[in-house]
Design brief:
- The protein is an alpha/beta fold.
- It has a single domain, classed as 3-Layer(aba) Sandwich (Rossmann fold).
- It is built from twelve helices and twelve strands.
- Helix 4 packs parallel to helix 7 and helix 5 crosses helix 7.
- The radius of gyration is 20 Å and the shape is globular.
- The structure holds adenosine-5'-triphosphate and nickel (II) ion.
- Nickel (II) ion binds next to helix 1.
- It catalyses: Ni(2+)(out) + ATP + H2O = Ni(2+)(in) + ADP + phosphate + H(+).
- The complex is composed of two ATP-binding proteins (NikD and NikE), two transmembrane proteins (NikB and NikC) and a solute-binding protein (NikA).
- Keywords: ATP-binding, Cell membrane, Ion transport, Membrane, Nucleotide-binding, Translocase, Transport.
- Its EC number is 7.2.2.11.
- InterPro entries: AAA+_ATPase (IPR003593), ABC_Ni/Peptide_Import (IPR050388), ABC_transporter-like_ATP-bd (IPR003439), ABC_transporter-like_CS (IPR017871), Oligopep_ABC_C (IPR013563), P-loop_NTPase (IPR027417).
């Protein structure tokens, strides 16, 4: 049996806006296994970023985590609910044991400091190094690990002296500088050129093996899922609609939404040739559709779909779907 590193249960986040309460994610549950790459996929606005940020309480006002638990299994065998930790306690884990890489390297780096300083800072803050001198020395090794040529001189560069791809390598280097157990990458390549995207994904795979990290990868790209992930959760309008291995999801998609997503993208594994889009738009999350949130766009809607929220059901070992068809 694979061993879970995270057990997420009924995670719910609401945003209290003037227009009303945005029910961004509702009772989201999934496990992440130690050492795997777990992808979260879905259209824009479906709640991927909110889910990944909520794992370490990284939700700012007007957002609030209103329910659920995130059980983290530490390497020493103890477990902790990350949502129950105080701000100080969670800050100690975030950036050290659980690190993030965000989409936009420009926003992740401070233009006023050299990249070496910024990598060193991440290690100094979490006491991975004993002082700044050691931090700056280690920063050179990290730049070398993320395959930046001439790291001894690059370490003194300011962000504006680097290309977008190189900056994202620095951000990734900062992310892995404390040797995190879990790396959460939210659309890490979306802001980059297509050719650079492949290089960055390669680099993340390499580092993941080298550091024995668990990777949670947020993406809207099914091709990236096929390329990178072991398992995948498909989200729609703030709910997980299907979870399974990449093989299960690509070869035997059960949820009508997953089936639509796979038809909407050229899919190397299932060899689907046609391009189709899913009619309709993502619903407003202030007043989400009753019952199954996908029912207004679903080709198979039944009476029960309007009335009852479908629960995730295990259809074959490890393959879960939330749909009244099953
Ligand atoms: N600060 C906020 N105030 C109000 N609503 C918010 C806020 N942040 C997020 N939301 C809502 O939460 C929902 C989920 O957003 P989230 O950013 O998680 O989507 P996403 O799947 O990551 O989309 P994308 O692919 O565009 O990054 C959206 O409906 C969004 O409108
Ligand atoms: Ni996002």
């Amino acid at each position: 049996m694979p061993e879970p590193i995270l057990e997420v249960r009924d995670l719910t986040v609401h945003f209290y806006t003037y227009a009303g309460i945005v029910k961004a994610i509702e009772k989201v549950s999934f496990d992440v296994y130690r050492g795997e790459t777990f992808a979260i996929v879905g259209e824009t606005g479906c709640g991927k970023s909110v889910t990944s940020r909520a794992l370490t309480q990284l939700i700012e006002s007007p957002g609030k985590i209103v329910g659920g638990s995130v059980i983290y299994h530490r390497e020493d065998g103890t477990t902790v609910d990350l949502l129950k930790l105080s701000p100080e306690e969670i800050r100690e884990i975030r950036g050290k044991e659980i690190a993030y890489i965000f989409q936009d390297p420009h926003a992740s780096l401070d233009p006023l400091y050299t990249v070496g300083y910024q990598i060193a800072e991440a290690m100094v803050v979490h006491k991975t190094v004993k002082d700044w001198k050691e931090g700056l020395k280690r920063a050179v090794d990290i730049l070398r690990r993320v395959l930046i040529p001439d790291p001894e001189s690059r370490v003194k560069n300011y962000p504006h002296e680097m290309s977008g791809g190189m900056k994202q390598r620095v951000v990734i280097g900062t992310g892995v500088s404390n040797n995190p157990k879990i790396l959460i990458a939210d659309e890490p390549t979306t802001a980059l050129d297509v050719t650079v995207q492949a290089q960055i994904l390669d680099l993340m795979n390499k580092l993941k093996e080298e550091y024995n990290t668990t990777l949670i990868l947020i993406t809207h790209n099914m091709g990236v899922v096929a390329e990178m992930a072991d398992r995948v959760a498909v989200m729609y309008a703030g709910k997980i609609v299907e979870v399974g291995s990449v093989d299960q999801i690509f070869k035997n998609p059960l949820h009508p939404y997953t089936q639509g997503l796979l038809r909407a993208v050229p899919n190397p594994l299932a060899e689907i040739k046609t391009l189709e889009t899913i009619p309709g738009t993502v619903p407003n999350l202030i007043e989400p559709p009753s019952g199954c949130r996908f029912h207004p766009r679903c080709p198979h809607t039944m009476e029960v779909c309007r009335e009852k929220v479908p629960e995730l059901k295990e259809m074959e070992p490890g393959h879960f779907v939330a749909c009244h068809l099953y």
